Each structure stands twice: as C-alpha cells, then as structure tokens.
Amino acid sequence: MVRRPQKAWILVSIFCAAVGTVGALSPNRYGEHGVAAPFMRLSNQNEGNLSTLLGQAADYCDTLSRAVLDFVCRENIEEWFYTKWEKVNMLAGSVFTDGRIERYEYLYDYQLVHDRAGHLGENRTLIKEQGKNTEISNAPLKTHIFKYAYVIRGPLGLLGRDRQADFTYKIVREEKAIGETAVVIEAVPKAGVHPDYLFGTIWLRKKDAGILKIQWNPASMENYAGVENVGRLLNMKPDVLMTSEYAFEKNGIRFPSRYNIKERYLGKLGRSFQRSETDVTYDQYKFFSVETDVIYSK
User: Fold this and answer.
1) Number of domains in the chain
2) Taking phi first (over 0 means left), then psi (-120 to 50 degrees means alpha), and beta for anything else, what does residue 257 get?
C-alpha cells in the first residue's frame, strides 16, 4: 500500500518495554527536552563552510523528496532485551537482572516505492525468522522494542529547506565516517520553536554534504518521559543512542546501511545498564528506479 507523504513526517520510533512502562516514542511535537548548552561563536570561515554545507544539504533534500524510487534490499534485524530487571541499588548504582535475555532475528526482503504521483509506501516479505526459512508476504515489522519506518527519508525533517529555519546548527568537528572525511554538525531547535520531528547530530561528507550518518537526540521523541520514568526507577540517567547510517549511493541518493538503537542508562560511580539493543542492517540492494529530476503528476 502506498500513501502520500506527510509534509513534516520523518523517521518514527516506538519503544515497547518488556518489563515496566516506556511507552510509544515518536517525533516530539513539543520539543521541551531539546535544550543544549549555549553555542560558541564560529569563525567567519566556519560560518561560511556551514552555510555552504547546509545549502548543499537542502538541495539534496529537495532531490530526495521528489525522487521516484523503486528498490528492494535485504533487511536483517537482530534484537535482544532483558525480560526482567530489578530496581537499582541506590548506593552502588547497580542493576540486578534475572540474567534472562530474549534474542530475536528476522530477515526481510524490504521494498520501498515513491511514485510519480507522490505516493509513498514500503512493504516487507519475511524470509527468515529465528534462523528458519519462511515466506510471508506483506509481513509486519516484528520487533518487540521499537518500530521504525522510511529510514531513507530521515534527513528531510532535519535538513530540508523548509526545516532549516527551525534549527540552530553548529560545526563541532571533522572526522572520518563510513570511510569519508565528514563535517559533524549539531542541530537543536531555536528558542520558541517546537518541531514535530526528530533532531540530532549529522555527519556530512565534506566535499559535497552527502549525508553519511545521523545520531538522533532521543529527547526529541514523544513519550520520552517514559524513558525518564524508567531512569528514575533505576536511579539512573537515560543514555539512549539511536543512529542511522547511509553508506550506499545511487544517482546521488543516499540509501540506509544501518539503523541501531541502544537503550542505556547511566548510574553513579560510572556504572551503566544497557537494557536492550536493536540492530538493523541493509544490503543486497536492487534498484528498479532511481529518478531524481521529477515533476509530480496532478
């Protein structure tokens, strides 16, 4: 099934706690947690570089949003989570579990179609579950801890031309990412702006602003209060790490290679507790259509 993409829609994540309540997490409509430390003033050169990179990224998002896409790939999912845990030791900062971890593995044929009329849809065929071959068409995403969709379109809400006015961007460093020299840019909502989409830190390829990686700020998701509630039960601070990587490129469009989320909590004396992890990798792409100069039909 295909649908017309929503203007402000990007990646959506949902947590489902195995034990305790975390709740549904989707892009935060209010952004009250999106507060960062004051920015240091950039040099004129950095300001110029930032402006150029953001302009190139906006051009890319224009291209991505109108591109006609039809491709399939393999989507391999591995997830684990503790089935039971107890309240943290208030002094030692330790978490006690019963040691039981549930592990799940799924292999899908994943297809995404964005047609000339602007309709968007994704479809999965489950071909392996827990190591056993199967063949289930129009299969649901069977992850237990979180749900996600349309990872390829994640950059639109963060770097799109109509979104950039909502954010303050800062170059924080340069480093290697996915084998490329990248400029790392941090984005936070401007004062008084309440975005209804995720935000975070972006790794842009230095030479042309190709989007290599995004680390999403989990506090920009709805019901983040549920994660904070778990942190209070544990007497720990949430430290959820959610990352998208885009290692594949076709006709100037970046395609996802990995999506990973670690549900972590930090305690006293440097103690930490990771309650779950879901790792999604994409490969074996087959492209039927990747057209980037498109005018939608009415």
Assistant:
1) 1
2) alpha
Tokens of 277: 């992890």
**Does residue 17 form part of some domain?**
no
For residue 10, give the nearest of 187, 150, 194 by alpha carbon. 150
Give domain status of residue 23, yes or no: no
Whether the model pTM is above 0.85 = no
Exposed e or buried b per residue across 98-133, where buried means at least 16 C-beta atoms within 10 angstroms of its C-beta? eeeeeebebbbbbbbbbbeebebebbbbbbebeeee
CA–CA dist 268, 118 (Å, integer): 50
The answer to whether residue 33 sits within a structural domain is: no
Residue entry with tokens 């074996």: 284
| Residue 128 lies inside a defined structural domain of this protein | yes
In angstroms, how far apart are the furthest CA atoms of the chain? 64
Q: 200-205 and 96-97: which strand pairing? A: unpaired
State the residue range of the domain holding 114: 44-286
Written as tens digits, the pLDDT of the chain (298 aa) is: 443 333 333 333 434 333 333 333 333 332 222 223 333 334 445 566 899 999 999 999 999 999 999 999 999 999 999 887 665 454 455 566 666 889 999 999 999 999 999 999 999 999 999 999 999 999 999 999 888 899 999 999 899 999 999 999 999 999 999 999 999 999 988 888 766 667 899 999 999 999 999 999 887 766 677 778 878 887 888 999 999 999 999 999 999 999 999 999 988 777 888 889 999 999 999 999 888 765 444 4
Residue type present at position 291: E
